[in-house]
Amino acid sequence: MKREVKDADEMREAAQEILASLQDSSRDNALIFTLSGELGAGKTTFAQGLAEALGVEEPVVSPTFTIMRVYHIPKSDSPRRVRLQDNPFARLVHIDAYRLGSAEELLRLGWEELARDTENCIALEWPERVEGLPLEHAKRVALTLVTDTVHEINYHKN
Q: How far is the CA of 11 from the CAs of 34, 43, 44, 52, in angstroms?
């Protein structure tokens, strides 16, 4: 799927639509989104859209300096949940791998356990920084800054 968006609201809306399209997919592990793109392409904004769809109630900010942030998803009737009817997730795990030098560093942070947990939705920014990480089941999102105001989303559902 390829889509152009003109602002942050449209980027978040696109993320919500993609997540909603996967609602009925069966999984044996976490739902993982890899978010690729240059600085300013919209990776964190896309993750914010996922958070909104999942009903995360706290502000979602870039985890660049902390590497990883875990947001707990309230059960049932969160007023913020906008897209998912039956939300199977308990956590949104937002990872920014920009400051990591290898997949080994992410493995030491507990990646394998996070990726196995079916109650996790994971947004992994800068996946190219952790090359070699097993991501064969990840949903790949490539974001490109086309102009100052237009971003392109390329989504590949593996």
A: 15, 9, 10, 12
Range of the domain at 116: 2-157
| Per-residue tens of pLDDT for the chain, all 158 residues | 899 999 999 999 999 999 988 876 778 899 999 999 999 899 999 999 999 999 898 999 988 889 999 999 987 665 555 455 567 889 999 999 999 999 999 999 999 999 999 999 999 999 999 999 989 889 999 999 999 889 999 998 77
pTM: 0.91
What CATH number does residue 99 fall under? 3.40.50.300
* Count of domains for the chain: 1
